[in-house]
Amino acid sequence: MDALITSGLAIGLAEIGDKTQLLTLLLIARFARPWPIFWAIVVATLINHGVSAWLGATLVDLIDPRLMTALVGMAFIGMGLWLLKPDDEDGLEAGAPGHGVFLTSFVLFFLAEIGDKTQIATVLLAARFEDVLMVTLGTTLGMLAANAPVLWLGARFCERLPMRAIHLLACLVFILLGIWVVIVEAKAWQWLTG
User: Fold this and answer.
1) I need a surface site. Which of 87, 109, 139, 146 has the fewest CB within 10 A?
2) What was the pLDDT predicted at 94?
3) Which pLDDT does position 188 carry in this prediction?
4) What are the tens digits of pLDDT across the range 78-119?
5) Which spans in 16-159 are helix H?
6) Highest mean pLDDT among 73-77, 99-103, 141-145, 187-191
7) What per-residue confidence (pLDDT) applies to 157?
8) What is residue 108's DSSP assignment?
9) How many angstroms separate the CA atoms of 151 and 84, rounded?
């Protein structure tokens, strides 16, 4: 359950104010059909994050466990710092009408997640917990927790959130998780003291 809860919380916080949340707002404004967009987000995220989690769990088997743990911890710290940089909003378009709401939303959401912070975080979370299923479910639930309210509440929802405070909280969660992994789980202090 740790993998599910940690993954959901980390991704849910990281997604608030992310470009995929802005894409969700754009899609609902364009199509005004929340359910097909919702299911497109679910399917796109399950596929994208499932592959990412598999990659993260596979990396653990290829690298010395202690080194991998230290690398994952340092990557979490880097991810936390990366969250301070706002996402680039270029390329967020709803596509030509006539492709269908689900298909358009699926393709755009899937492409928006490739190389995104949350995809990389999913790789790291799976490397940390070595549980592809729970990490995939957790990150998908976190994605939905951040994006589903936008589908039904739209711009009113986004405007009222303290984005800066939420980004700082997400940053803090990743940095603290990284410090914990490096110091406690990788026992990096033993490497330094000999």
Assistant:
1) 87
2) 47
3) 64
4) 888 887 776 555 444 544 445 689 999 999 999 888 888 889
5) 19-31, 34-62, 65-82, 101-113, 117-129, 132-159
6) 141-145
7) 63
8) H
9) 25
- Of 177, 165, 148, 125, which Cα lies nearest the Cα of 11? 125
Is residue 106 within 8 Å of residue 37, measured between CB atoms?
Answer: no
In a 10 Å sphere around its CB, with 0-12 CB exposed, 13-18 middle and 19+ buried, how is residue 134 labelled? buried
Tell me the mean pLDDT in the region 143-151. Answer: 93
User: CA dist 101 to 24, 29, 98, 174, Å?
Assistant: 12, 12, 8, 34
Long-range contacts of 133-136 (CB under 8 A, 24+ apart): 133/53, 134/1, 134/3, 134/4, 134/7, 135/3, 135/4, 135/7, 135/49, 135/53, 135/56, 135/57, 136/46, 136/49, 136/50, 136/53
The residue among 118, 99, 97, 96 whose CA lies nearest residue 44 is 118
Pair of tokens at residue 64 = 């010395």
Unique residue bearing structure tokens 């479910």: 137
